[in-house]
Design brief:
The protein is of the alpha/beta class. The protein is 37% helix and 13% strand. The strands form 3 sheets. It has a 6-stranded parallel β-sheet with strand order 3-2-1-4-5-6, with helices on both faces. α1 links the parallel β1 and β2. α1 packs across α6, α2 packs across α4 and α6 crosses α7. The radius of gyration is 26 Å and the shape is elongated.
């Protein structure tokens, strides 16, 4: 089922993954596995998954191959089970029970491949009162208490795009679970189901905060704590040109360096004096508005004050540090984040552009040993049967 690892292709080279197409955290998790070297075959549905993004620009489908199957067609589930039989991992993001109704649920797949790791990505999880309800990132993180932590006091909570729920609480936990279950399957010969719910993962991310809350070191309200913008030396400030600087001068020596470079005197003892935090915030804010973002960037460039400019998505790839590390890469005309993390013996790379629906069918049919996947194979069989009938008529 698997092959030896090939240096340069990632540590998961030889691992086969089937991804049943969806949107959001499932595709991102599959992209991460593909970035790490896995052979990911995405099963696209006719007409697309409904994201509305041109597939040529959907970076979450890089390093994958795509086949198109209609799971509502009588032959569709059979082809998915053919893939599952030859795979190490399958990932799906349907509502609970849908995969079973389509005939590609865990029991169906494990009947063909007992070693398969079956990864399920949902917002609410496989069980519970909300399991069958629709939802998106905002609702999932809202119920976990994490959304309520983000934003200014007296204002609505601020949505952190879909990074906190979909990708951190969802995709990354699915990948961790899949890799752990894959290790177990290789040790025991037995696969299992991984139930990755965004509500579970996002709640898990707040473990340290819950500990601080229990210890009386965290107030259960926005912008009132050390790490949520309540602390004047851990937050963001506007500059003269409308830009922003991010400040993280938590430790005393970093705080001292921060005050020195900012040019503020008489605030050394305000570090742990909460009664002086309003004064400290006001003076820091006023000072930052005296220069542009670029000017302040130069001031703090070679210091340990833990201050950095807040860059936009288009600016970030050009930052000297990120450029030197290759944190972003250009591939097939797309600037995109490079694979992470990094490996000394099995480095990763962006190998292919986003997989367009169905374009990988001939190669997957041949390499995975499933000729029925390829419509051209079916057409050839039809032509052969027709030729045989004609030959018999003669």
């Amino acid at each position: 089922m698997t092959t030896a690892t090939t240096p340069g292709q990632g540590p998961l080279t030889g691992v086969r993954v089937v991804e049943l197409a969806g949107i959001g955290p499932g595709p991102f998790a599959a992209m991460l596995l593909a970035d790490l070297g896995a052979d990911v075959v995405r099963v696209d549905r006719p007409g697309g998954a409904g994201l509305g993004v041109d597939p040529a620009y959907d970076v979450t489908n890089r390093n994958k191959r795509s086949v198109v199957l209609d799971l509502k067609d009588p032959e569709g589930p059979a082809r998915v089970l053919d893939l599952a039989e030859r795979a190490d991992v399958l990932i799906e993001g349907y509502r609970p029970g849908v995969a079973e109704r389509l005939g590609v649920g865990p029991a169906d797949c494990h009947a063909r491949n007992p070693r398969l790791v079956y990864g399920r990505m949902t917002g609410w999880g496989q069980e519970g009162p909300l399991a069958q309800r629709a939802g998106h990132d905002a609702a999932y993180i809202a119920l976990t208490g994490t959304l309520g932590m983000i934003g200014r006091p007296g204002e609505p909570p601020a949505l952190p795009a879909n990074l906190l729920g979909d990708y951190a609480g969802g995709s990354l936990y699915l990948v961790v679970g899949v890799l752990a279950a894959l290790h177990h399957a290789r040790e025991s010969g037995t696969g299992q189901v991984v139930d990755a719910a965004i509500v579970d993962g996002t709640a898990h991310l707040s473990a340290m905060i819950h500990g601080m809350l229990a210890a009386g070191a965290w107030q259960d309200r926005r912008a009132a704590n050390l790490l949520d913008g309540g602390c004047p030396y851990y937050g963001t400030y506007e500059t003269a040109d409308g830009g922003y600087m991010a400040v993280g001068a938590l430790e005393a020596r970093f705080y001292g360096e921060f005050l020195r470079l900012l040019g503020l005197d008489g605030l050394e003892t305000a570090h742990h004096d909460l009664t002086r935090w309003p004064e400290l915030r006001e003076r820091i804010a006023a000072r930052f508005t005296s220069r542009t973002r670029e000017e302040w960037t130069a001031v703090f460039a070679d210091s340990d004050a833990c201050v950095a400019p807040v860059l936009s998505l288009t600016e970030a790839p050009h930052h000297p540090h990120l450029a030197a590390r290759g944190t972003f890469t250009d591939h097939a005309g797309l600037t995109q984040p490079a694979p992470a993390p990094r490996f000394s013996a099995t480095p990763t790379t962006v190998r292919t552009a986003p997989a367009l629906p169905g374009t990988g069918t001939p190669e997957v049919a041949r390499e995975w040993g499933i000729p029925a996947l390829d419509d051209r194979h079916d057409d050839q069989q039809h032509d052969d049967r027709r030729d045989n009938r004609l030959a018999g008529a003669d």
